Amino acid sequence: MVVIKLRPWILFSIIHLLIVGLFTVGCASSTPVVVKKPAPAESVDPRLVAANTGFGFKLFHELAQGDPGQNIFVSPASVSMALAMTYNGADGATKEAMAKVLELQGMSLEEVNRANAELKTILENPDPGVQLTVANSLWASEDIDFKPEFIGRNRDYYAAEVNTLDFSHPSAAKAINNWVKKNTGGKIDNIVERIEANDALFLINAIYFKGSWADKFDPSETKAGLFNLPDGTQVKLLMMSRTGQYGYYQGDNFRSVRIPYGNQRVSMYVFLPEQESGLAEFYRNLDAANWEKWMPQFTETTVQLVLPRFKYEYAVNLKDTLKTLGMQVAFDSEQADFGNMCPIPPVPVVYIGDVKHKTFIEVNEEGSEAAAATSVELLCKGIPQIVNMVIDRPFFFAIRDELTGTILFMGTVQVLPN
C-alpha cells in the first residue's frame, strides 16, 4: 500500500494539474455567412490536443516565474479557445505570430475551427457524474461593422452567442458580466470592469466544471492537519483521508496519483514533489513531452490518500505573458493585422488591448467545482480615447492667464454645502 500525504507544495501542483488533466482531452450584429457546420464529434484532432497542451505548459511556466511561491490556477482550454476565436480575424504577421504561440502551425484555419468544435462537443458530454459546460460569446460595438465571415465562423464552429451593444451605455459591461456569471455557475461575475470609448469587441469564453469523485471521501475521516508553506511555516487546515484503489505513478523526485470523477472519464492528477526537491525542480521537467510520457504509466495501486480541502479564486492579466511568448504584434496598435475581422477602412487598426483570465476552484469530500472565464478585448485605434474624470473628492484648482502664465487664483475645495 502506498501512503500519500500531501505535504509541502502539493496545493500548487493541484492548481495547475487539475486544469491540464481536466480540460485536455486525449483521444452590430453582422449577418452571418453560411458556414458548413461540423458533424457530431466522436474524436478530437490530436494536433489540437497537442497544441493546447503545449501552449498550456508554456503559459503556466511564464506565470509561475512571474509569481513564485503563490497559488496559480489557469484553464489552458479557456484561454486557447478565446484566442482561437480571435485568431479567425487575424491575418499576415499577426496570424503567424498567434499560430506560433498557440502551436497551431501546420493546421489550416478550417482544421483549427473544426477541431475546436469537436472539442467543445466532446467536453460537454463527459459522464453522468460530471457537469461540464463550455460557452463562447462575442460582444461587438454597434459603431463597427465586422466581416460576416468572421462572425459566421465564430457562431457556427464555436457556438458563440453574438451580441451588438451600445458601448457608451452604462449597462453594456453589466450585460457581459451577467453572461459570464450565468455560464460559470455564478462563480465568476466580473470579467469586464469597464468599457472604454475605443473598445471594438470582446470575445469571451467561459468554462464551468462540477464533478463528484468516483469514490467520495468520508467526511468523518476529515481531520485537522498541518500544511507546510514554501517559507517553512505551517498552517492548520482540514485534511481529507481515504484508502482505496487509485492510479499511481512514481517518477524522478515526485509521486503522483490520479483521482477520478464520475465514471472516470475525467480525473484530477496530483503531483507531489519529494520534500528535498520541491516544486522548482519539478517544474524543470514539467512540459508537454514529459506529460505525455507520464500519462500511460499510472497503475492501479492501493493508496492511503490524505488531501487538503481548499477553495480560492485567481485572476491574472495575460497581456504581458502573451507578449513574452511571442504575440507582441497582436497588441501593437501600429502593426496588428486583424483584416479578417473588420473592413479597413473605415477602421484604421484593430488590435488586442487586453486578455483577462479569472478562475475559481473548490475541492472537498464530494468532489470538485471549477470555473474559468477569459476575455479578449479588441481596441480600435480609429476611435479617440475618452478619459473619465469625476471630481467627487477634495481637489486643488487654479485660474491661470494662458498668455502670460500668471496665476490669478489658486485654492482647494474640501467641503461643499448640500
TrEMBL record:
SUPFAM superfamilies: Serpins (SSF56574). Pfam families: Serpin. GO terms for cellular component: extracellular space. Residues 57-417 form the Serpin domain. InterPro entries: Serpin_CS, Serpin_dom, Serpin_fam, Serpin_sf, Serpin_sf_1, Serpin_sf_2. PROSITE patterns: PROKAR_LIPOPROTEIN, SERPIN. One of its GO terms (molecular function) is serine-type endopeptidase inhibitor activity. PANTHER family: GH10112P-RELATED (PTHR11461:SF211), SERINE PROTEASE INHIBITOR, SERPIN (PTHR11461). Belongs to the serpin family. This is Serpin (Serine protease inhibitor).
